[in-house]
């Protein structure tokens, strides 16, 4: 048995969960945030047999794509009279961070 922990961007999670369900893989969602942009993420927990790990990773790859966004950085604290012109910066968002962990024991109570 394996535990898959996938941190997925909020935009991708619904599509990924539906695709996982279509393949017979159920998941538990935990809302989370973090990273550079402090945007909403969802952490998916999936307990699967070893034979299902490759399928789950394939589904996550197909449904959680990295994409570009433009972000205007917040101006630094400046002295009165100073000017700061913020220019949009291109950043990569999306995709997923996935951990696959061996499970020594499992009980459903």
Short description:
This protein is of the alpha+beta class and 109 residues long. The chain has helices at residues 10-22, 50-63; strands spanning 2-9, 28-34, 39-48, 66-71, 89-94, 96-102. A hairpin with a 4-residue loop joins strand 2 and strand 3.
Relative helix content: 10-25%
CATH topology of one domain: Alpha-Beta Plaits
Q: How many DSSP E strands?
A: 6
Strand order across the biggest sheet? 2-3-1-6
Descriptive report:
The strands form 2 sheets. Strands 2-3-1-6 form a 4-stranded antiparallel sheet. The chain has a two-stranded antiparallel sheet with strand order 4-5. By secondary structure, the protein is α+β, with helices and mostly antiparallel strands. Helix 1 (10-22) crosses helix 2 (50-63). It contains 2 helices and 6 strands, in the order βαββαβββ. The chain has a domain at 2-66 and 94-102: Alpha-Beta Plaits (2-Layer Sandwich), CATH 3.30.70.120. 25% of the residues lie in helices and 40% in strands. The two termini are 17 Å apart. The longest helix is centred in the middle third of the chain and has 14 residues, at 50-63. The model has no long low-confidence stretch (mean pLDDT 84). It has helices spanning 10-22, 50-63; strands at 2-9, 28-34, 39-48, 66-71, 89-94, 96-102. Strand 2 (28-34) and strand 3 form a beta hairpin.
């Amino acid at each position: 048995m394996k535990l898959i922990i996938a941190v997925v961007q909020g935009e991708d999670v619904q599509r990924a969960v539906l695709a996982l369900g279509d393949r017979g893989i159920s998941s538990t969602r935990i809302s989370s945030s973090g990273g550079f942009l402090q945007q909403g993420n969802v952490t998916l927990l999936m307990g699967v047999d070893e034979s299902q790990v490759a399928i789950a990773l394939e589904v996550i790859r197909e449904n959680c794509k990295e994409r570009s966004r433009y972000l205007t950085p917040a101006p630094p604290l400046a002295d009165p009279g100073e000017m700061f012109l913020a220019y949009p910066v291109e950043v990569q968002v999306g995709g997923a961070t996935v951990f696959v962990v061996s499970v020594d024991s499992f009980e459903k109570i």
